[in-house]
Amino acid sequence: MGAELMSNDMAEDGYISDSEAFDSVVQVLDAVRMAPSLVVQSDRDQYDALLSIVDPGKKMDSDKEALLVTALKALTGAVSKIDIIFHGSLLSNIFAMRIWNYGVDARNALLELITSLAAVPDKFLDGCLHMLVSNFLPPERLLEFESHPRFVVKKKEIHKQLHMALHYITDLVPLAPMKLKEVIDRSMPRCNDAKAKIVVFVECMLGVQTDDIGEFLGNLLMAKVVDLLTDLDVNITWEDILQEEQNKGIFDMELEDLEEDVDKDGKDGRKPLEDNNRAFKGNAFAEKLDGLMVVVCEHLKSRADDGRLFQEFGMLMDIFKRSVLKLHKSKFAQFIMFYACSLDPDDCGVKFADILTDVFVDKCEDPTSRMSAVSYLASYLARAKFISPPVVMRILKRLVDWCFDYCRFQNVQEKIINPKFHQVFYAGCQAMMYILCFRMRSIMDYPDLRSLLFHMPLGFVLSHALDPLKVCLPSIVQEFLRQAKAARLFNASVPSIYENSLESELSKAFGGTERLDMFFPFDPYLLKDSDRFVRPNFEFWSMVKTTYSNCNSEEDDEEFDDLDAPDFAENIGSYEDNNIGFESEDEDDLGYSMNKMSITPKPAFQFPMATDFQIPSRMPARIRPSVSPTW
Amino acid sequence: MDGLTTAKADLTVYVHPSKSNKLADAVRKQLSSLLFTYDELFDGVLLSHKISFQSNHAKILHGLIPYFGVKVRAKLLIFSPKPNMLLEGKVVKLSKESIHVIVLGFTSAAIMSEDIREEFKYKIKHGAGCFASSSHKWHRIKVGSMVQFAVKRSLKRCRD
């Protein structure tokens, strides 16, 4: 009678009052609230009619939708009459409804019904939450229009409504977030799902995080997103990235860098670039990761705009330490930390570096974590444009001091060193050298930092019996020594030329099975859509100014190369006595070279072999001949 | 408020060996996982706990992962409402059929219209619903007011 009453009345007056609809629905519900065999057939028919109005599978025209709105409003008033068993089919219909299919009125009515159902103690909360979470995603047929502007607008509207509904439910039932955690866990897309599905769901999820109820959920949602990111990440192989034909633009530049990096770092994890004709290997995972990174970065940006980034950053650090730090196969997921730091360099950026250093020096942490942390630190300080040289020096000082203390308390008797025993030390040394390869030149531009650098016991550490120069990755050692030589960082005690190998057995030994000796987590970013977040703050090797390079051209280097001949050092023996007290083990007192970093060459330059001058003068390779004075 | 009780319990908490250097934290975390859930042992919802260690020794379990059992004496605050107890709660939602209340900030209750005293009638004032008493002019129940009610029936929640 309920549906017939309603449709009859509508036929008669064109509308039905709320109270009439309510009464008829209550009647129907009451009539069915008994064992099925006792229900009168006419009541059963009315109930079925109600079911046909509230039917998720039906296509609705405007009339049917208006009827639906009335029915939903009536049900909202009668939630206390709904029984979980006797009205099971009605409930399953309600919970299966997709709000994406309906207009504004029906959506509002449906959401109001859901929130009222959730407020009934202990009965329908699970079902309601499940219904809301499954509505994070649109129906399959709409997913293809994911990038369409109208779809984007509708999506934002619906997500906002869903967040409000969840918020309202939490106001009424304070412990709802606990159940919500479980529901989201069950419904979360996996890494094998379609890209659109993953992206839309995670966008909505992070919207929940932004809402007030995010406080109750803590870092749970973000942790799940990071888990998904890393899942996708470890499934990408290097071949997938390098084979991407259509991304020639970015990749060309990247490949350049890759080439340089291969020379510099000897990373043999990347296949040779000539091998581009390998079969295209399905980079679906890379695309999904790309899309997801865009969503996460935009979320971080919106948090930064709200001024809540620092709060969120604490959570991010916990998640990073737990999930990402020890994951050595991840290539791009860690860049969310990079981006978060770039949004707030002074607080978050510095905090990240400090926490990584803390992990490195902490005796209680396991060696793998410590080695990972210092690799992260090195790669981060090298690549982050937004970290200023004073901060870099402060962190570097901590590293050097730790290595120095480590060396002092080593009593190395044996000739043959087992790199495995001192792996944390070697990782620290390699990190120091890597950072200086990128940053030495910029540090030299600050006089106080320069003097700090020269006063560090770097030479002592590197020429210690533990022989880090032999054990660390040869390409890094080579580059570092080259720059140190140009900057006059050390004197002869630290050898300036090393054999030209890309990697050695010893570095493999200290790196272990995970090859932590070749772990540079913030190497150039290769995903195209999300690249726009990373690129502005990323330092490419090709852009780095080294101490031996000249702004004008490379030839100047060669010109002054003879002056930098190694035997030169031996000829200036006299200065050592005159200079700062050299009796200490500290061999880094080359303060004299700071004076030499000037544009004006001394007259003595013309007489390189003369040894009767107090202050030695060696033309640093950075001199531009065009500014030489007339003499 | 009825229904709140404190209890002392002697518990054994099993801790994973990796947490052995931060024992107090590990034990607290384990106990905290029981917070705001109904526990049959305590016959109520655990609201807060305070622990003290009974001894320095712990027995290690046999098995693949050598968990060890730490004996703990805990002071617990438990909420276990029984029928006919009087509770207070804040009103969050009013409708003709029911008043929804939040008790102690974490649990919700609904008072059905048939259980509300006769004198209260549902009215809509200034756009919001309220229950106004017909006998006392200024006695009104609105969203945000505190009400006292007797427990009719408490549904025990199981941990899923």
From TrEMBL, chain A:
One of its GO terms (molecular function) is RNA polymerase I core binding. It comes from the Eukaryota. It holds the Pfam family RRN3. The gene is LOC109704970. GO terms for cellular component: nucleus. It comes from Ananas comosus. This is RNA polymerase I-specific transcription initiation factor RRN3-like. Belongs to the RRN3 family. GO terms for biological process: transcription initiation at RNA polymerase I promoter. InterPro entries: ARM-type_fold, RNA_pol_I_trans_ini_fac_RRN3.
UniProtKB/TrEMBL annotation, chain B:
Keywords: DNA-directed RNA polymerase, Nucleus, Transcription. It is found in: Nucleus. Signal peptide: none annotated. The keyword rRNA-binding does not apply. GO terms for biological process: DNA-templated transcription initiation; transcription elongation by RNA polymerase I. DNA-dependent RNA polymerase which catalyzes the transcription of DNA into RNA using the four ribonucleoside triphosphates as substrates. This is DNA-directed RNA polymerase subunit. The lineage of its organism: Eukaryota, Viridiplantae, Streptophyta, Embryophyta, Tracheophyta. The gene is LOC109706989.
